[in-house]
Recover the amino acids of this structure.
């Protein structure tokens, strides 16, 4: 039986009904989970295995039987490891039914049927006693309930409940401890994702700087988004930041709760002497786990420059340490920048509740500081993602947009801007347009009104109400001469989703003057064959993990992805190294200054590939041709020339698309390899479908 689901089409802007399989929600949750990526983490698997081996041996030396509880067993891997290490009984709980079924079948396939007691419940729902879920309390707990913030998946509640109701008083835990580290840095680059900056330009024929858009004080003083900014810190170039402190241990969690209670909220103060003078802009955070009772087996999530495995040798390569996408590092933006002076002590104040962390800097221990979790007060961090705020601060984008507006704005210009949180509307007004009309979503309208008022543009800018197609020419002071889009919309996930500007343009043709200019004028979609160093793991089959057959899980994931996923998904590729295995290939070009035709627009072809090596994916992006001038192009893809065999430098303020090949191809020994492609744009619903084959 199938079900209908209602979804917003990000390209057409319309709500659409789609027919989905009955178990679509389950399949989507399985497909979106990080199980596969997590199980490709060989270091994680090995250190959990070693932690179990050592802990079970410790219990044997005590003369005790070993009764294991595995919380959130997932595929059942840790339970099977426990049995293999000699546990007497193993109880595994898994609340997500599809994964519980996967674990049950996996136990059978690996010969562990009857050796693991599987309970499809949350651990907090388990009951202990004769005839209940667990006959007795466990004396060894193994769990993987961590995320980027360590505690964001409810680790504190899970361990506190287990300690009080499910474990013996002397139970051992794998892992036994967790430690959180923080490093204070100065970074104007990282600040671009959080604090909005004024928009300026060089006055024509002068070196004088002109402020075009002033940022309201409410935005300047806003502490920013409360949500963690998870990031692959090892891909952050060293030139992006200056360390103000060494990595500082700020929280220690004894998961057993015996030596130190597991508080639901806590605050620590760590004094440090700055390594350099500057501004304390942000805090970088990561954590590690002690996998055994003696703390000899450590699983670290540190970036390469602070990773214990790189101590004593050149710390210059992120590939020196294990890659993982399920546990990343994080950036926390301080509520206020704090000046640091070399050797003048400061205090890093670190706070957490049951699920999240936040930080502040204290320069005087006698001066009180705010300990509350930062919350956006200006609205822009609520209506705009970090990616969008980065775009609004991106010098490359701003330069391109201002250059084009300078070409087209005259005292007679009537502008219409299409997009969400489009500050270029204010720039157009400041450059001398007669009047500017904006189309903003209800969520961004209030934020933009604040900017308009602060910049004293109330008489030059009008935010149009509702759907632009409902606006009549009588509501304007004159027909529109320039339609401008950055383009960006809050619904944009993949670069071509911003084709919504084309649909919006064509819904307001009745407002446009004859010969009105459209910016951007066209868009081209590009593809590049690449070898992802690590990203391929998010969809690659496991086959075997530490000697355990994972074919059952592979089948589950593959089926879920086929039913719930598109072939292309968005990823910020600057965080995921990829070597070019060919040249950028034009897949499709669309004229945005024309009407939208009814028939599909197709493009097929093939390009020769050099004998380059492994190809495991195709990177996809769009170039926005702002005008017909070849210099007026804004790319969402490579920002430097693509060099064969070298890592690609990507636009850091866009999520590109990735098309992962199910079967990677090695072209190294072939002189006649080809990349065959098919691209279809369907005007009726705005979808872009891709198909790629590498022929050797």
């Amino acid at each position: 039986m199938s079900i209908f689901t209602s979804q917003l089409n990000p390209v057409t802007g319309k709500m659409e009904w789609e027919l989905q399989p009955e178990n679509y929600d389950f399949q989507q949750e399985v497909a979106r989970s990080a199980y596969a990526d997590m199980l490709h983490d060989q270091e994680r698997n090995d250190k959990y295995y070693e932690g179990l081996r050592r802990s079970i041996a410790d219990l044997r030396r005590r003369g005790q039987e070993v009764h294991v509880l595995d919380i959130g067993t997932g595929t059942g891997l840790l339970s099977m490891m426990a049995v293999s290490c000699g546990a007497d009984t193993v109880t595994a709980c898994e609340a997500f039914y599809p994964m519980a079924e996967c674990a049950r079948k996996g136990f059978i396939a690996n010969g562990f049927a009857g050796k693991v007691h599987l309970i499809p419940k949350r651990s907090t729902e388990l009951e202990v006693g004769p005839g209940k879920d667990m006959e007795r309390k466990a004396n060894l707990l193994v769990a993987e309930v961590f995320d980027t913030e360590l505690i964001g998946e409810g680790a504190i509640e899970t361990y506190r409940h287990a300690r009080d109701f499910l474990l013996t008083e002397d139970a051992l835990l794998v892992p036994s401890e967790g430690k959180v580290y923080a490093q204070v840095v100065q970074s104007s680059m990282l600040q671009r994702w959080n604090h909005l900056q004024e928009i300026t330009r060089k006055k024509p024929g002068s070196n004088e700087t002109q402020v075009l858009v002033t940022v309201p004080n409410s935005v300047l003083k806003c502490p920013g988004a409360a949500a963690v900014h998870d990031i692959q810190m090892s891909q952050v170039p060293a030139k992006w930041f200056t360390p103000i402190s060494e990595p500082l241990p700020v929280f220690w969690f004894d998961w057993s709760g015996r030596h130190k209670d597991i508080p639901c909220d806590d605050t620590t103060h760590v004094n440090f002497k700055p390594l350099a003078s500057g501004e304390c802009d942000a805090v970088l955070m990561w954590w590690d786990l002690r996998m055994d009772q003696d703390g000899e087996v450590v699983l670290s999530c540190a970036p390469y420059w602070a990773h214990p495995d790189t101590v004593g040798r050149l710390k210059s390569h992120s590939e020196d340490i294990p890659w993982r996408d399920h546990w990343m590092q994080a950036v926390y933006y301080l509520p206020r920048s704090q000046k640091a002076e070399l050797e003048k002590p400061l205090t890093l104040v670190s706070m957490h509740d049951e699920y999240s962390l936040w930080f502040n800097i204290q320069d005087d221990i006698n001066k009180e500081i705010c300990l509350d979790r930062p919350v956006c007060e200006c609205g822009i961090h609520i209506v705009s993602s970090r990616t969008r705020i980065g775009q609004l601060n991106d010098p490359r984008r701003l330069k391109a947009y201002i250059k084009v507006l300078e070409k087209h704005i005259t005292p007679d210009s009537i502008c219409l801007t299409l997009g969400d949180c489009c500050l270029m509307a204010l720039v157009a007004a400041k450059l001398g347009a007669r009047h500017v009309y904006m189309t903003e979503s209800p969520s961004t309208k209030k934020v933009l009104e604040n900017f308009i008022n602060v910049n004293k543009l109330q008489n030059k800018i009008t935010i149009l109400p509702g759907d632009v197609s409902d606006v009549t020419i009588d509501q304007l002071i004159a027909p529109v001469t320039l339609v401008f889009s950055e383009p960006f919309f809050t619904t944009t996930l993949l670069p071509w989703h911003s084709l919504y500007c084309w649909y919006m343009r064509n819904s307001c043709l009745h407002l446009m003057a004859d010969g009105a200019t459209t910016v951007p004028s066209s868009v081209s979609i590009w593809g590049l064959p690449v070898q992802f160093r690590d990203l391929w793991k998010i969809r690659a089959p496991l086959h075997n993990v530490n000697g355990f057959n994972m074919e059952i899980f592979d089948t589950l994931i593959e089926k879920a992805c086929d039913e719930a996923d598109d072939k292309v998904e968005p990823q910020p590729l600057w965080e995921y190294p990829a070597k070019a295995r060919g040249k950028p290939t034009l897949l499709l070009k669309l004229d945005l200054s024309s009407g939208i035709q009814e028939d599909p627009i197709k493009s097929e072809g093939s390009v020769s590939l050099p004998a380059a090596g492994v190809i495991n994916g195709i990177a996809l992006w769009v170039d926005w041709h702002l005008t017909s001038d070849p210099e007026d192009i804004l790319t969402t893809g490579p920002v430097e020339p693509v060099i064969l065999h070298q890592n690609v430098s990507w636009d850091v303020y866009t999520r590109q698309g990735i098309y992962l090949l199910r079967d990677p191809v090695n072209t190294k020994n072939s002189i006649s390899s080809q990349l065959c492609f098919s691209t279809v744009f369907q005007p009726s619903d705005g979808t872009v479908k891709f198909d790629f084959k590498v022929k050797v």
In short: The first helix runs from residue 24 to 32. The two ends are 42 Å apart (CA to CA).
